[in-house]
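Same chain as my last thread, 135 residues:
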Amino acid sequence: MRYGTPLGVADIAGPSMRRLLSDGDRVLVRYGAPLRPGAIALFRHPLQQDLLVVKRAVGRRPGGWWMLSDNPLVRTDSREYGAVPDELVLGRVLLRLAPRPAWLAPGRGLERALRGRPAWLAERLGVSAPVETEF
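reply #2:
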């Protein structure tokens, strides 16, 4: 992490990232951090920019990042509002601070090492895949 990179705290509201994050969780965000597919991102809602949203960045699409909920029952994500422009992406969620601290931004080496390992171990270390869906 570069010195001077701003960090902030955000509170989670709603069920869209359930399993990994729950309503009432508090997370640490690194503002301005680069995203990569699989990262959990904080961004401004494209249609209601005073609303901050946390979703998983699935990949780049024309117009920005494709963001999806981890909860398959929640479809308020890029399937509803399309790709999120880069200028609306605020940062990357690094870890859950409360109520159960957990690292949510593992390095690529750790992600590769945990492929094929038990799901509980990968999730405990912050490596989890988004719901498989067509986009």
